[in-house]
Amino acid sequence: MNIGIDKMGFYSPHLYVDMNELAISRDVDPGKFTVGIGQEKMAVAPLTQDPVSLAANAALEILDETDQEKIDLVIVGTESGVDHSKSIATYIHPLLGLNPQARAFEIKQACYGATAGLQMAKGHIALHPDSKVLVIGTDIARYGLRSSGEVTQGAGAVAMLISREPRVLRLEEHHAYHTEDIMDFWRPTYAENAFVDGKFSNEQYISFFNRVWEQYKAASHLKLAEYEAICFHMPYTKMGLKALRTILEETDEANRDRLLANYEVSKTFNKNIGNIYTASLYLSLLSLLENQEGLPAGARIGMYSYGSGAVGEFFSGILQPDYQKQLHIQRHADLFASRKEISVTEYEEIFQQMLPADGSKADLAINEDPADIVLAGIEHHVRQYVNKKQ
Ligand code: HMG
User: Fold this and answer.
1) What is the pLDDT of residues 53-106, one digit of tens each?
2) Boundaries of each Hydroxymethylglutaryl-coenzyme A synthase C-terminal domain copy (predicted)?
């Protein structure tokens, strides 16, 4: 049975900081942020956007009535969940008008969460061919003001509808994955911001990639030349390129040029959003599909997922005929075009804003946020969401 991605949705908050401005205010040469790290703009989430609303907004744009009825499994991958107990998957259920006869849960393994969800969805469809699964990666990446990871923050979500006879990307049967207990990046339950061993995390990202790439080659007998493009988890856009370069000698110049050109396109959205952890790999896929004209149906796309801590996985998919019809190219172009630049001072103020944690009531200025689904406030420790369209 053919199983894979049938639809893809994306959402990111309407505010951003320019990386040149951030560099100047941090007394760093802007070239380090824009070339050395490869980031141009960083999405900033106001209090009215949290990982729940981001996830719901990303899914809202792709679901029709049949999907709402047929989805019987909702999996949200995140590492910035808003509750130790209640899952984002349950919060978004009513916001999206989904059929209550569904399983819903949240899944965590750093940036690997959405990939774990995608592979579970594949197994679920194999057992229940008529059902559909909603898989979402949603995150707000926080390293802290003036930290070395600050330039790699971001906020956003990607939603994917998984079904049989998918119209975007059919997942191939082979897998290669690897797990090790390492401390390259983590966030203890008491911490608002992540802890990271930056250089070690870079090394591990590449080492895991090399390992699963070799495993995948052995399992699939596929050569690098047989890939139209490889999409990478993108904590920052230079990272995937460093990994890709380690295998380029396996093919000839023409193939190398194609893979490098497609890598450039696959980072178009990511360099303007920042790291969105669980959704970054899928944002890079969306970036490739929506910005590269002429990708042929039948083309093979490789996918490298890495979640610190750490789990790495390589898998691949085949582009389906007329996949472009399933995309929302104009809507996403409008989303980027309508964003508002804020100053570094405004970003710092937003970064430090927190919801009350003592049970008191807060009403947020939802009219300042153009998103359909917003966090309107909190009362008695209960987050209040509004879908302006309902
Ligand atoms: P840093 O120490 O600030 O930067 O940390 P650097 O000194 O290593 O410089 C970065 C690059 O800029 C270097 O290039 C410099 O040469 C270059 P490279 O050698 O790497 O090719 N550079 C310049 N280029 C042009 N003009 C200039 C200039 N100056 C310097 N003037 C680091 C950078 C990424 C380590 C830091 O930002 C960090 O810790 N980020 C967070 C961790 C991270 O993103 N790790 C990635 C792998 S782990 C992962 O992907 C998982 C993750 O997503 C979490 C999860 O799974 O949940 C993070």
Assistant:
1) 999 999 999 999 999 999 999 999 999 999 999 999 999 999 999 999 999 999
2) 175-249, 264-354
Site to substitute for ligand 1 among 37, 208, 236, most atoms within 8 A of C-beta: 37
Contacts with 257 (C-beta within 8 Å, 6 or more apart), sequence order: none
Give the SS3 label for residue 183.
coil
Q: Which of 138, 145, 185, 270 to mutate to test the pocket of ligand 1 (most atoms within 8 A of CB)?
A: 185
Q: Which domains does the chain have, with CATH numbers?
A: 3-169+327-387 (3.40.47.10), 170-326 (3.40.47.10)
Provide the token pair at 239.
Answer: 């990272």
pTM beyond 0.90: the answer is yes
For 126-154, the DSSP string reads HHSTT-EEEEEEEEEE---TTSTTGGG-E
Chain Cα centroid distance, residue 356 = 28
